[in-house]
Amino acid sequence: MKIEQVPKEISSFLMPKPSGKMYYKCLGCNERFGIDELLYTCPKCGSVLLLYSEGNELLESLDGSKWKKIFDYRKLLNYPAIKGIFLFYEFIAPVIPLSSIICLGEGQTPVVRANSKLRDMVGIDFYFKYEGLNPSASFKDRGMACALSYIKYLSEEKGLKDIIAICASTGDTSASAALYSSYLGDNIRSVVILPEGKVTVQQLSQPLGHGSIVIEVPGVFDDCMKVVEYLSERYNVALLNSKNSWRILGQESFSFEVAQSFDYDMKSKAVVVPIGNAGNITAIMSGFLKFYKAGIINELPKIIGVQSEHADPVFRYYEQEEGERRYVPVKVRPSVAQAAMIGDPVSMPRVIELVKEYDSITDKRRFYVVQVKEQEIMDCMITANRNGNIVCTQGGESLAGLIRAKEKGYISKSEVAILNSTAHMLKFISFQQMYFEDSFPPEFEVKPKDELKNQPLKISPEKGKDQYSEFIKDVAEKIVKILNLKER
Questions:
Q1: Does the pLDDT of residue 375 top 90, yes or no?
Q2: Engineering a disulfide at 33: which of 24, 59, 76, 289 sits with its beta carbon 3.0 to 4.6 angstroms away?
Q3: Domain membership flag for residue 487
């Protein structure tokens, strides 16, 4: 659709221009800081930051019904800068000009209803949002599109050269950072620090393929994150982990898209999301809060965070009585949900802050955390994909979390759940292979169920290819026996 085909009362809003100003706010001392330089923690007290905007006339003047029309008509346009996450420009980063926005096709991932067999099995109506259909095959592209758009804008404004973008990763962040950095060309170099032996071959191939400098460090993600924090505090590098508040802004688009997918009706809805570094669940809560305050949605959906018992610091925190809670990092054990295998999430202070606001909006509790077993994660991943889905191990964690939440009464069968499948199943295909071959090391605590195992069936024909027609007949007849086929 072209703008001139849009109703006049809407068309003037479809191509947004920079407006208002943005600032960092410290969650520790509440101090504000400008955005003229990249900040990851408060320069005064060292706490994490969140980004806020103010002085945007549209945000302060338009009602929810108008915003719905703007977003719905904007979605029909073919202008790249506002086709992805910046479809919701005014609610993400309304100071970045459209000319600085990087769009590689991220966002607008489908929300797909589980088939009737799987819905009946779980006992509730639910959908998967396929984040694996983003360009680098994970949800991380949402935040990276925003963070790198801001870096591009900042470099253009200040004439910055030879930017070094660095991140710690279990795989998905590195793939996304490498992709978006390489798109910007020679002015930015991508460096990724990975835990040695803790990243799948498929995930490792992505940053290597995009030309990043890949450095493997002994240990786990938390160790890599500490190294990156050390470097970002002392040297001129652009940190691209979710400690970067611009990443959080981009990932809020997940919430905006979910709302739009359900015609902005979030009544009796629940969003289930794995918790890794806690950036994604932070962004999802923040996004729904923004839409609620703007009158775009009339009810906040429940948020159900999921953690494996092998990496569950957030679950342990919220299991404690309110008023007596004390956050304690945990030492992680091996997990199939590698992207969530984090014992000390950097966004934990953001979670605590936003949960207080989220649960205070109404007199009903809206935020929950559940714990699941590694066995349940793998069983759910295999089962979901057996029923026509493209679910990664973290998506399996979401499904296991939905089942646990229903068992605990956090969600009822009359509600509808939207599950975050954070990456493409092919990124974690090595875990599927270990499941089928029953080759998981003992520390994973995963044993395959016979009914879910699958392996190729090999045929050994008695006739050789030198008797080709007999060879074909022999192979075909053996397949007939395997499939128990009936003649016409």
A1: yes
A2: 24
A3: yes
